[in-house]
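Can you give me the bound-state structure? Components:
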Amino acid sequence: MTITDLKGWTSAFSAALGATDRSALAALFTPTSLWRDILAVSWNLVTVEGADAIVDMVLEMQPQVHLGEISTSAAPGALEGWITFENAFGRGTGYVRLDGGVCLTILTALQSLTGHEEAIGRLRAIGTGRADDKRNWLERRQQEAAELGREIPPYVIIIGGGQGGLALGARLKALGVPCLIIDRHPKVGDQWRSRYKSLTLHDPVWYDHMPYLPFPENWPVYTPKDKMGDWLEHYARIMELDVWTSTECTSASYDATDRQWTVNLMRDGEKFAIRAPHLVMAVGNAGFPNIPAFEGAETFRGTLNHSSQHPGGEGYEGKRVAVIGSNNSAHDICADLVANGAHVTMIQRSSTLIVRQKTMQNVLLAALYSQEAVDQGITTESADLLVASMPLRTQEAYQKQIWQGIRAMDADFYASLENVGFQLDFAEDGSGMAMKYQRTASGYYIDVGASDMIINGRIALRSGVGVKQIVEDGLILSDGSHLAADAIVMATGFGSMDEWVARLISPEVAARIGKCWGYGSGVVGDPGPWEGELRNMWKPTAQPGLWFHGGNLAQSRFYSRYLALQLKVRHAKLPLPIYGEPR
Amino acid sequence: MTITDLKGWTSAFSAALGATDRSALAALFTPTSLWRDILAVSWNLVTVEGADAIVDMVLEMQPQVHLGEISTSAAPGALEGWITFENAFGRGTGYVRLDGGVCLTILTALQSLTGHEEAIGRLRAIGTGRADDKRNWLERRQQEAAELGREIPPYVIIIGGGQGGLALGARLKALGVPCLIIDRHPKVGDQWRSRYKSLTLHDPVWYDHMPYLPFPENWPVYTPKDKMGDWLEHYARIMELDVWTSTECTSASYDATDRQWTVNLMRDGEKFAIRAPHLVMAVGNAGFPNIPAFEGAETFRGTLNHSSQHPGGEGYEGKRVAVIGSNNSAHDICADLVANGAHVTMIQRSSTLIVRQKTMQNVLLAALYSQEAVDQGITTESADLLVASMPLRTQEAYQKQIWQGIRAMDADFYASLENVGFQLDFAEDGSGMAMKYQRTASGYYIDVGASDMIINGRIALRSGVGVKQIVEDGLILSDGSHLAADAIVMATGFGSMDEWVARLISPEVAARIGKCWGYGSGVVGDPGPWEGELRNMWKPTAQPGLWFHGGNLAQSRFYSRYLALQLKVRHAKLPLPIYGEPR
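Here's the bound-state model for the whole set.
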């Protein structure tokens, strides 16, 4: 029977799977088909390529996961659309794209565990308490907070109470998994408050919602940093999360015998330890300042700060400031210094991807994350799944096309930047910002005004040069020239997540786990082999009980669901088959 | 042309109005037709009865409000449905019910002012600040908060920072109207936190959303009081409201010459005054404890508290406690005392309406405010408008039917209560709780468990008796019997909103304005004449610049929109025709 649409394809797939018919299954895919599975088949995050590998995975896992019939709401004749299904564990959804009668891409994502659903909607708490419990909500909540991590051990410890840790904490709370969040800042939200003064989010509000509590409809498009900090603080209390602030994780070790972490903490100089079966690193990638060891730095007579210590442009009026770096922070800091009357020189050591914020919104986000999308009924949840439905191989090809369009559309803007010597790139293979972000999480600036300052010379530019050494009154650049400076800001980025593992756990564990983030694209900073998913993120690692969570607000929202489900299924002690488990 | 459906009716109406054809207009209504208008025709909240009065209002106002063509999305043949329209001021919506070709009821409600829309959705702020402004969001917000009420006069002062004041404040903020909220409690939310320990909201979460920021989907059905207090505190900060806490309004006076209020305030013993053109009383009806002057009260050897001072049941174990009253607070306090091991007697001085919370949810609210309603796509906004579309006359008739059903459904429950002597009523005319609430806002208990305690004797009951006097070891009841008590709680209610006017402004102004709340139903506590709307609530009063706002969370949400629009249209200095303006 010829397959002419998605309904036909899902029927054929379900029939072939039901009959364990390897060749019938294989006929539904091609050598370039991509199956992205999030927990539904693999209890892992994997993208499997080609008919053979896909059929191998499905038939290997099927005896344990019992993937049921796949339904689709797609109209007759449609070649792509949403699917839903159940398996032995719960309910899932996904998205399929066909080319004729065969599958180009399929996403399958487990959404809930049957019998262990989130306490939301009709399963939310009643709120009135139990008749035999004299305590009211406040007393119960206070007792719960006082006991967790003391009388009652958490099942999960999350290091880092930024958007990642809080989003995951909220998901775990809704699933009834005891979770303690550790953060070194005095108040929830201080990660954001403590950054440079002019910072606002570069992504728009529609992209940034946290789980369960979307931003209100009067929230600004680009959230200012302090307002973001406040939101996280409110969020933690509204979600009744247990966050220990002013608490630093000094080290952690895993006991393989009783499968428990011992996490050593310090608060107000006092040391103590907590044990838990699972440890989540949600420390973000702005944790360790990356401070190059510039020769002569100690001789500099002015102030020399990493971007994370730079207080903002006030007080710099009339001063000569050199900013080393050319990514987001460097640009924002330069613009703020100029606005405050400083004489600023940006030192661009390597090429940078620039995208105008408006272009980013109109070209890259508008279809799924915009007021127009909301008004057309596109929910955040469906937008997230559509993004997830595109495997990284497909994304690379698609983004190359998009970025050809952007370069043509903003050609005058880019020419003006190049005219003043700014070194542009659009990723090694022209695949643009989204791929740069997923490869190295660096190398770009979303232009909110600094590019115009570079074009019109309000920010002076030295490009294609490095810093040879720092001297008492400025810098010597790699071309031998001298740049006078009263102050230097090093916008030189931050260390990576795997560095935290080496520091907090051990170099051995760090080596065993390997790199976090990146997908093996083969470009500088993200060497192969091709992984098909971000390495070690939100999925089982080679270290039992150790997990990584992070990324921007959209990733924190989306992947927290799946990391929480993986922790919940372990908390519920369900027998757990894992495909492609790292060892 | 015979009118057979709503489409036909709206066409005929628009044609007749366009032609200023009095008799054609009158033919579309009957002597019992009801037109409820919220700002769209009247710039007032009015319900007009009968064809003649309706046509009078419409033709009197039309030269100024220019009500445009009325459209409906109703299907052909439908006898009721939604309408939309524009007028000289903005856009509106409404709902019409027909009986054959004539109108039974019509709601018209102005939703927005053209050119003065709320800064939400696509009109929200960008958030990145202006290029020429070195201040970031935090500095701008801090300056704005520091200046309002000092360098910059507010346009509106709201007395009371509970759900009413905050909801209105958020609406005004979105409309760009400078507004200062005054609250006597140390922290926003303390109105709720300071109430008796076991209190939770009696209305479910779906009924309780605040404007712009709905409760998250994991919020409990019945919000505990402290959690509600925290929510209001977060809400005020998220909405960037200017609330002066620990600040008491001591008096206010209006200068008719320059149309300004002088509002005298006290904070930490310091007195100061602020001026503003508009003053909103959002003090709620739990402001002044209503403390009867019981003879001999000073001789009582135990503790004698009003319900608002009662600390909760802890420490009352083994004590004999008399609770005077039989409404919500009395029942909740009795149940909490029993749970804490006290020997409790409720003194029921007059009959009470009881409804089981489950019955209330399933019968009275489920269709519009429930998880099922949400899952069926009924928005809070459309639910609110459907409720508003039913004029009070229609409500009375409808509620009588509903309550006949409830009495039959819960007949065993009610019989058990009567068996132990509990005196029940269902409002004088059998119209039930919603009408009692709108008439006197008292006389009922939403049963969350205390009724069973009365039925099984855990709460002792003395009904049909008053308190003759208090003696040193208890009370003498009106039948001459003695009731021994170690403690007495007076759950005797609170003073009314108009009392605030007499105290804070003057008895003369209070007398001119007359009663607040109630609609002239003619029952005890709500004497006629019939008003058709709640008296003085959310609408112009006989005192220029004085407004009343309040009610439960649903009313605070819904009516804050229309009170804010009335204040905005004055702030924008638009020429303003008002129908039925009180003088």
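A couple of observations. The longest strand of chain B covers residues 102-113. The mean pLDDT of chain B is 95.
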